[in-house]
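Structure (tokenized):
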């Protein structure tokens, strides 16, 4: 919205021409989302406290200290994040770009699924939301629509292929079956972030790191000159997704202000599912699906720890970890929550650097 208003005023005020630049608008998206949450965050938290009463139900089979320390903390903080992302994106992005709307569709759609799940948990005072099968089916439908959109917008055969990191020309062509790959990336990313969200501030910082990394990737991949120089696959129009990534970073910073230990609010499935879905959708759009497994490697580790734990217990009756996901394992080993969170942040940062190195190592 501001993009159109300000650029149309360049004839009268030449200084407004700066708002044509993607970097300027990405910076504007960061600041707007951050200020939005600072302004409206306290009201949202107080409102959710009144509505939820006892706050988010705490799992009885989780770490026992959570029952004492985290009881009564409101959830659905993802509403703060999603509102900041939506407002910021609408103000600063080029709304004629279909990639923007497709990613927003996934973000808000996954957020709606997470919100309904959180709502059922709070109203029922139970850790169980709605049917996992129905939830996954809803995620697959939303992701499928977005991937079809990406395949339709993009140039063939690239939009129906899987690009491999470290290889400048190699593509694995799937044709119409690429929808399966894209959906798995988006749904897997959404649920991986959801699994990681278990400690105060644990998930939001790696999400911001990943979003910042993909802001750079989107900017480079969407620019013909830079993509040609770095021997990346040029995907016309995806540069605009840097604005959404900036909005995620800004909203994440604002949310972290209230989510830092001890948290005043949890993001809940409303936020974690939406943010993970957004990262997955952006990765598919810019043709860096595999790189997401590196940049978002922390989310992969957390998810794998759960899978390994379940398989081991069902097949041998023994547990590999003291508790899954991985962050709970270290809690059971005696690590303090801030120690786990900050060390996991460091891991996420290092993995992001490794993932970004694939842009040059070709």
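Design, position by position:
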């Amino acid at each position: 919205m501001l993009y159109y208003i300000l650029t149309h005023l360049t004839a009268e005020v030449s200084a407004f021409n700066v708002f044509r630049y993607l970097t300027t608008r990405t910076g504007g998206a960061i600041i707007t989302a951050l200020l939005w949450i600072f302004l409206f965050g306290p009201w949202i938290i107080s409102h959710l406290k009144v509505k939820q009463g006892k706050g988010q139900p705490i799992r009885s089979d989780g770490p026992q200290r959570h029952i004492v320390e985290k009881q009564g903390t409101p959830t659905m903080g993802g509403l703060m994040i999603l509102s900041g992302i939506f407002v910021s994106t609408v103000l600063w992005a080029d709304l004629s770009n279909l990639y923007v709307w497709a990613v927003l569709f996934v973000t808000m759609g996954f957020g709606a699924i997470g919100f309904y799940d959180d709502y059922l948990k709070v109203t029922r005072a139970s850790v169980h939301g709605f049917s996992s099968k129905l939830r996954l089916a809803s995620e697959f439908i939303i992701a499928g629509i977005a991937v079809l959109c990406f395949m339709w917008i993009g140039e063939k055969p690239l939009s129906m292929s899987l690009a491999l990191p470290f290889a400048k020309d190699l593509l694995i062509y799937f044709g119409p079956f690429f929808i399966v790959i894209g959906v798995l990336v988006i749904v897997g990313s959404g649920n991986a972030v959801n699994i990681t969200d278990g400690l105060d501030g644990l998930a939001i910082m790696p999400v911001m790191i990943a979003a910042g990394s993909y802001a750079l990737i989107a900017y480079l991949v969407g620019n013909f000159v830079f993509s040609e120089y770095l021997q990346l696959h040029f995907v016309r129009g995806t540069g605009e997704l840097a604005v959404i990534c900036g909005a995620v970073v800004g909203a994440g910073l604002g949310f972290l202000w209230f989510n830092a230990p001890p948290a005043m609010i949890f993001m809940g499935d409303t936020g974690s599912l939406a943010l993970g879905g957004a990262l997955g959708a952006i990765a598919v759009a810019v043709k860096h699906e595999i790189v997401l497994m590196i940049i978002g490697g922390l989310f992969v580790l957390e998810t794998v720890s759960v899978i390994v734990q379940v398989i081991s217990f069902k097949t041998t009756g023994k547990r590999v970890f003291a508790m899954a996901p991985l962050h709970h394992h270290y809690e059971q080993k005696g690590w303090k929550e801030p120690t786990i969170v900050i060390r996991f942040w460091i891991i996420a940062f290092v993995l992001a650097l490794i993932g970004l190195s694939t842009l040059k190592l070709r």
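Reviewer-requested clarification: The beta strands are 161-163, 171-173. The chain has 15 helices and two strands.
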